[in-house]
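Dear colleagues,

As part of the handover before I leave the project, I'm documenting each prediction I ran so the next person doesn't have to rerun anything. This entry is a single chain, and its sequence is reproduced below.
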Amino acid sequence: MAVNHGSRRVMEKIGMRYDRTVHADWPNPIAGSEEGEVWYGLKRSVWNGGA
């Protein structure tokens, strides 16, 4: 979730990079879901340790 700053920071520390934010309509939304869900990605070169 976009509002989960701690989780986002961990993903950035391990080399993942922000890709996009997705907004969805959930039947029973939880607090913060209105800000959307963030997607992070990892390049193959980072995954392989630069090899």
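The two ends are 32 Å apart (CA to CA). The chain has a mean pLDDT of 90.

All the best with the project,
I.
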